[in-house]
Write a structure and sequence with these properties.
Layout lengths: L7 E3 L6 E3 L2 E3 L1 E5 L3 H4 L2 H13 L4 E7 L21 H16 L3 E7 L1 H5 L8 H11 L6 E9 L5 H14 L5 E5 L3 E2 L1 H4 L8 E4 L28 H10 L4 E3 L21 H12 L5 E4 L2 H5 L16 H4 L3 H14 L7 E2 L15 E6 L2 E6 L5 E4 L7 E6 L4 E7 L4 E4 L11 E5 L1
Parallel strand pairs: 4-5, 4-12, 5-6, 6-7, 7-8, 10-11
Antiparallel strand pairs: 1-2, 2-3, 9-10, 13-14, 14-15, 15-20, 16-19, 17-18, 17-20
Helix pairs in contact: 2-3, 5-6, 8-9, 9-12
Length: 428
């Protein structure tokens, strides 16, 4: 039986996905330039690596730049011959390889800058969407993602036209929208009937970098969220009955703030924090990213590379990518779609920034993530007799503690002696 015999669906009246009646936890990776920058043999290596680590969605852009406008985007781009049928056959084969490995391809038709620079226009957007919808009508492992790092103000009708064509011709495929940094698709398309789920880009800045006066500063109700990506989840779930995903949090080994090479890097513990914070707030999954992987960096620095440290083949093995599967397995070990954010169970109240306790619970389970690993207390009176574990997000290892015997469980810090201090208390 094929992995894709049944379509991916949105659970009715829930903020989650399902397939064949079973919960589907979105675990994505950003491979934006997989079609442009590597060959099919290398793509197969990358896809197998991700499949074996538990990823099930690969986010990629079909057209990042064109032959006549190679400098339309910032990252080094090798293949821009998008009007050549050989290019599309290359894309076809990569998508098919992903299908063989059980991976969905969340495809962006074109990066947002192509819209802003009049490459993808009101005149040709429908024709392009029809081309894609017809070409991939029989492919079962595709999710359509419009946008591409863009605030679509003034371009909403272009995306609306494309979305309606996809809905008509590819009714079995879900549609989302990847927005500009520190924005969510809900800001523009909250009432759009074609939008199946929301996606936000919490971005790559620290708390103190929210307003830098830089090229990518934005102004909206979310612009000061900083690293608090759980706030995007709160906003989207309060204003929509759709699932929501952090489609681009801070990447592993990318400069904090992106452009200043005097700044430190985001590392594995940071990408774990983004993942647990958003998922324990009620996101339908999470998308990981790695600086070298997203552009498939091969040593060519003829462009903006955000302080990349090594080539993509070495970066395949960065710790954060392997640790994402631990979260997926943890969520699938319970009926996570019955859970919700439960700050009210934190004795003494919620904490701020890095001291935040992300608590997610259902009738039969409770999970509390603590980035700093410090002591805290939980109201557990509704879980008498349930078993308690200390779970390490860096290793995926459960360490048995005992059973719930009181109305309150007090966690006392267990030293880690390294930077991997984050812990999850699991009660089930």
């Amino acid at each position: 039986m094929s992995e894709f015999e049944y379509p991916l669906e949105v659970v009715k009246d829930k903020h989650y996905f399902s397939k064949n009646g079973k919960p589907f936890f979105w675990l994505g990776d950003t491979a934006w330039l997989i079609f442009a920058n590597i060959n099919e043999d290398d793509a197969a290596v990358y896809l197998k690596n991700r499949s074996e680590k538990g990823f099930n969605v690969i986010q990629a852009v079909l057209i990042y730049a064109t032959e006549g406008l190679r400098d339309i985007n910032k990252m080094p781009t090798l293949r821009c011959d998008v009007e050549n049928e050989d290019y599309w056959k290359h894309c076809d084969r990569v998508i098919k390889k992903a299908e063989e490995l059980g991976l969905y391809m969340a495809l962006l038709p074109a990066w947002g800058s192509l819209v802003k620079n009049d490459v993808l226009t009101r005149e040709n957007a429908e024709k392009y969407a029809e081309f894609l919808a017809d070409r991939y009508a029989d492919y079962k492992n595709i999710i359509w993602i419009l946008g591409g790092d863009i605030k679509p103000d003034g371009y909403e009708d272009i995306y609306e036209k494309m979305a309606l064509i996809f809905k008509k011709k590819n009714p079995d495929k879900l549609i989302g929208f990847h927005p500009f940094g520190r924005c969510s698709s809900s800001l523009w398309f909250n009432d759009a009937k074609w939008l199946d789920f929301n996606m936000f880009q919490s971005g790559h800045r620290r708390y103190d970098q929210c307003q830098m006066g830089a090229w990518d500063d934005t102004s909206n109700i979310m612009s000061l969220n900083g690293e608090d990506n759980w706030k995007y989840v709160d906003h989207d779930l309060a204003n929509s009955n759709r699932p929501t995903i952090d489609g681009e949090p801070s990447y592993e080994w990318i400069l904090q703030g992106l452009h200043d090479d005097t700044q430190p890097y985001w590392v594995a513990k940071d990408v774990r924090r983004y993942a647990y914070w958003s998922v324990f707030a009620g996101a339908a999954g999470h998308t990981y990213g790695d600086n070298a992987i997203m552009m498939f960096f091969n040593g060519n620095k003829d462009g903006v590379v955000y302080g990349v440290k090594e080539d993509w083949k070495a970066s395949l093995h960065h710790a954060g990518s392997g640790q994402m599967g631990y979260l997926k397995n943890l969520m699938l070990s319970v009926d996570f779609q019955s859970g919700e954010k439960r700050d009210d169970l934190i004795v003494g109240g919620q904490r701020e920034k890095y001291e935040r306790i992300a608590l997610f619970a259902g009738d039969e389970f409770l999970m509390a993530y603590n980035f700093l690993g410090k002591g805290f207390s939980i109201n557990v009176k509704d879980y008498p007799g349930k078993e308690i574990w200390l779970f390490r997000p860096a290793t995926g290892i459960y360490s048995y503690i005992g059973k719930v015997t009181d109305d309150t469980y007090d966690y006392r810090e267990v030293p880690s002696y390294n930077e991997d201090a984050d812990v999850v208390i699991v009660i089930k």
